[in-house]
Each structure stands twice: as C-alpha cells, then as structure tokens.
Design goal:
mainly alpha, two-stranded antiparallel ribbon, 24 helices
Length: 484
C-alpha cells in the first residue's frame, strides 16, 4: 500500500482526454452514427488501458486494477440481464400483438398536435407509479414510439419526450432506487428529499411540457392524420387486435408497482407475451414455426425465435412494416458490449483514485454556495461521462461533497437535490453510460440523435444551478448532520 502514489491531476486527465479524442474521431470524422457498432467500445477499452498503465506506473498491482474492473462489471450485471429480458419481452409482445394493439388503439386517441405533450405526460405518470425510467421506456415507451412513427413524427423527438417524462417520474417516485440513494448519500430522509426536489423539478417538467406542446402545434402532419385508417387496416390485416391484449402490460406494471424486482417482472411479462401469442395469433405462430410442424412444436419455436433473434412481419404498408420487427435478445448484444467496455474504463478510473483526484481539484474552485452547488452538479455530469454509471455519479460526489456542504451550513437536502437534479437525469444523455446505452438500445435511436430533445434532462441541472446562484430555496441548518 505504501508504494502506491496518488495520481496527479494531469495523470488523471490523460485517460479522459484520450477517450474524448477517440470518441470525437469516431463520431465526427470516421463512423458517424455507426460509432456505437464497435469503434466507441474500443475507444473505452483503449482509454481504460491508458489509465491502467498510469496506475501501474504509480505502484498499483495488476490484481488491484483487475479487482476494480471486476467490481465495476459486477455492478452492471443486473442492467445487462434486464437488457436481455427487454429484448425478449419486445419480441414476444410483438408476436402476441401487444405492441401492435397499443399502436392500433393509440392512433385513435392521440393526434399529432398533442402527441409529444401527451407522450411526456403519460411517461411521467407511469414512471412515477413504477419508480423506473427503464421499465417505462421499455413498456409504454416502445408503444408510444410506434404510435408517433405512424403519425409521421420525428423519432428522436419522440424519444426525447418519452425519456423526459420517464426521468421526471424516476426522480420523484419513492419507489425509485436513485431517489432513495441520493438522500442516503447526503444524510437526509426520503420524504424530505422528494418534497425539496419539487422546487426545481416541477418548473423543469412544466417548461418541458410547454416546449413539447409548442413543437406539437408547429408540427405539420396533416397528411399523416388522413392515413390513420390505412395504418390501422394494415395492422389488423396481420394481427388479431383485441383489448384483452392489454392484460400483459398491465400485469407487468402492477408487478413493478408492487415492488417485484425488475428482472422477474420482465421475465414474467416476456413469458406471458409468448402465451398470449399462442392464444391470439395462431396464424403467426404457424407462419414462423412452419405449417408442416405440429402446432405445439411451432409454438415453441416461434416463441423462442421471438425472444432470441430477429422477427419481422410484412404488410402492404411500408411504414407499418418498420414498426413490426424486433431483434430479441440478440438485438441487445451490441448495447451490452458497450456497457461492459464502459464499466471496464470506469472501474480502472475509480479503483486507481483518478476519479477522486479529478473531483478534489474541482472542489477548490467552489468559493460560494452557488458555485459549490454548480460544482457538485458538474461533478455528477463528469462522473456520468467518465464512470459510465448513474449510481457512481450519485455515490462518489455525494460522499465527497457531503462534508463541504455541512461545513458551510447547508442542509443535506440541498446536496441530495443537487445529486438527483444532475446525476440521475444526465445519465441518459451519455452514449456509453449504462442508461444512455440502454435507452438507445431499447428505442433503436442513437443517443446522439435524441439527447437534444430530452428537455427535462437538460433543464434539470441548469435549474438546480440557477436556484443555487440566485439563493432560491437553499436551506441552511445549524444541526450537526453526520455522514452515513
């Protein structure tokens, strides 16, 4: 232990600069939108290798570095399993007609003018009830994306509305893991934390909803509206559409609300989708499994194929054809590859003290309460970029800034609010972050395409900084709060 050197600020910056440089080359010069197909994964591995070399130079043993990588990847294993199950669920929900039914009935209810506003609002309500932005995006989010595409609305804008609403609910729900994590790191309680967040979160979501409403009124989709009957007929020609299909997503949402862990809830939803496919779509079962086979064998093959591989259905309408396809578990493998590489990089940076060194340097710049809040928020964003995980973006800054907040007489709820306003929401905006990679993989839209439309996620950290600099609702205390 005595031989280990604390990394210098310059040393800690080198892997970050290498990563940013390689990502810029991949995205701006060579690969463009295809950078996530392998180039960015390799950039993360190379940057992690650079960090490991610096750590070895500072006296770290390879086993120490490997331990950090192992711990980092282990923390992402639940996310990886969830991704695989989301791919499986998307396949069986397509085969069973659940997603087509959502699109079919959604075309009756939602019109282009209010669609983005309604999408954000619906995602907010579902996420608030479930406490999970991931589950919201994977269930109602997929259906809303399909409806929006059928109405002719720009896909990245739809994704922005879905993710904005999902993260509002994720922040404010007492069922959310990050909503419980932030006050635990800051040293306050859950209810105090949620109540205090309303000051910054409610204005942020109201501004977001207003923006989407304005975009909706300016969106010219008259031609698409006249085609609603055509789109519905195309869906009905391939699937047996019934309101009974909504039993599947309702049961999954109920399981999540009842605090059933995401993995068994999604597995149940995936299997239930397969069962409903056999009951409601026997013609598709025969189409995939083969007419010459026993129906039981065809059912097994069709469900397994939907869960694991590419499944697509063809109608006479090309737009609908784009909606009626799924990659199953195999469609998620590229995203999982990205997450593993990102966690390797984050694990090396965290274990070798480089992330901590970067944060310590930043805190010296915070002279006022406003600048301390802004510094904390910025650090959360930096950790989302460098550590590639929203939990680390809450835990590490929470631990490092708690003492400084206490010494300045700031209530712990100021810190917990800042952590959520910046750490939770910005994770979805980083392509190689677990959240950014997840949402991009589930929705099939590159993070670089949708991030500019995630207005809530962009406004939230700015709102908390504005409150800090203007000294609005910045609670003080003389109580000696101790860090947990």
């Amino acid at each position: 232990m005595e031989n280990k050197k604390i990394p210098s600020l310059f040393q800690s910056l080198i892997p970050i600069l290498v990563l940013v440089g390689l990502l810029a080359i991949n995205v701006l010069v060579v690969y463009g939108d295809n950078a996530l197909s392998g180039a960015n994964q390799l950039a993360l591995l190379i940057s992690g290798g650079v960090a490991a070399i610096i750590a070895l130079f500072n006296g770290y043993k390879w086993n120490d570095i490997l331990e950090g990588i192992t711990q980092s990847i282990s923390s992402a294993l639940p996310a990886i399993i969830i991704l695989l199950l989301i791919g499986s669920l998307a396949g069986t929900w397509l085969l069973s007609g659940v997603v087509p039914a959502m699109i079919y009935y959604g075309l009756d209810i939602l019109n282009p003018t209010i669609f983005l506003f309604a999408t954000c609002l619906i995602s907010s309500i579902v996420s608030l009830a479930t406490g999970s932005s991931w589950s919201t995006v994977a269930t109602v989010g997929i259906a809303l994306l399909g409806i929006g595409k059928a109405l002719g609305i720009n896909e990245p804008i739809i994704a922005g509305a879905i993710i904005s609403g999902a993260y509002f609910g994720d922040k404010m729900s007492p069922l959310s893991d990050t909503t419980n994590l932030a006050p635990a790191m800051a040293g306050t309680d859950l209810i105090t934390h949620i109540k205090y967040m309303t000051y910054t979160t409610v204005p942020s979501i109201l501004i977001t909803l207003l923006i989407f409403l304005i975009i909706g009124f300016s969106y010219n989709t008259g031609d698409q509206v006249s085609q609603v009957d055509v789109l519905q007929n195309a869906i009905a020609s391939k699937f047996n559409i019934s309101p009974w299909l909504f039993i599947v997503p309702i049961l999954v949402i109920v399981l999540i609300v009842k605090k059933v862990p995401a993995i068994p809830a999604l597995l149940a939803g995936s299997i239930l989708g397969g069962v409903f496919a056999v009951v409601f779509q026997p013609q598709l079962i025969t189409e995939i499994g083969g007419e010459t086979k026993n129906f039981l064998v065809s059912s097994y093959q069709a469900i397994i194929d939907a869960m694991t591989t590419d499944v697509a259905f063809v109608t006479e309408n090309e737009l609908i054809n784009e909606l009626l396809s799924s990659g199953g578990m195999s469609g998620m493998l590229n995203t999982i590859w990205l997450i593993v590489c990102a966690m390797i990089f984050g694990g090396v940076m965290d274990k070798t003290g480089m992330l901590k060194r970067l944060t310590q340097s930043i805190i010296k710049l915070a002279k006022t309460d406003g600048s301390l809040i802004a510094t904390t928020a910025s650090s959360c964003v930096v950790f989302n970029v460098t550590a590639s995980d929203q939990y680390l973006a809450i835990v590490v800054p929470g631990k490092m800034f708690a003492e400084e907040f206490k010494e300045r007489g700031l209530h712990p709820k100021v810190l917990s609010r800042t952590l959520e306003d910046s750490g939770t929401v910005t994770s979805a905006l980083i392509p190689w972050n677990t959240c950014g990679a997840y949402h991009s993989g589930v929705l099939g839209i590159a993070t670089g395409d949708y991030f500019m439309y995630c207005f809530f996620n962009l406004i939230s950290p700015l709102m908390t900084m504005i409150f800090g600099f203007l000294n609005i609702k910045i609670a003080k205390t003389t109580i000696n709060f101790s860090k947990e």
